[in-house]
Amino acid sequence: LLGEEAVVESFLDCRKNLETHPLYENLTYFLRSRLMLKSNLEELEQFNRDVEALTSQLWTTETRRMIEYGECADSKRVKAHYDFPVAHLNEKSSLQLIRQLQQQREKIQEKLVLSVYESHLWRLRVDWLICQGSQHSEHGSISVLFAFLRRPVKDKMFVDHLKFWLNYVAVSLLKRARKE
């Protein structure tokens, strides 16, 4: 019981300077990259909806009827008709679709791939920081992770990663638990 105050003070001291903890900065960048990735994915979904709308306008069809007249073997006149669809390409929609697909390709190649890469990079950096942490920085890590869990973040994957890391740090502390 005498050492309890020192442990509590250690945790409280870690909370004073959360912004200076290396994990805080890396988690901030990870959160930003996840938000950018989510934004890029939403833009890509909008591109897909626009492409679907343009695709539906690309072709117009009309039904044509072909009528044939003939004569039977008994010399009676007969009439037959055949209905068939005829498709017409809408040039304006075609050009808009080409531009839209080019923009979509550029968005994927330039922004989405970079966002995915940055997100994975920052997640790996956080993984590395948490896995190599010492006991002193583990106290700070717990405080930083709880600080980020308290934020109203809508990204479920980010929250799941935070909970996983918090669990990992708590388990590693419990594995080396001493009287202090």
TrEMBL record:
GO CC annotations on file: cytoplasm
One biological process term in Gene Ontology: autophagosome maturation
Transmembrane segments: none
Coiled-coil zones: none
Domain of life: Eukaryota
Signal sequence region: none
Protein name from the UniProt record: Ectopic P granules protein 5
Phylogenetic placement of the source organism: Eukaryota, Metazoa, Ecdysozoa, Arthropoda, Crustacea
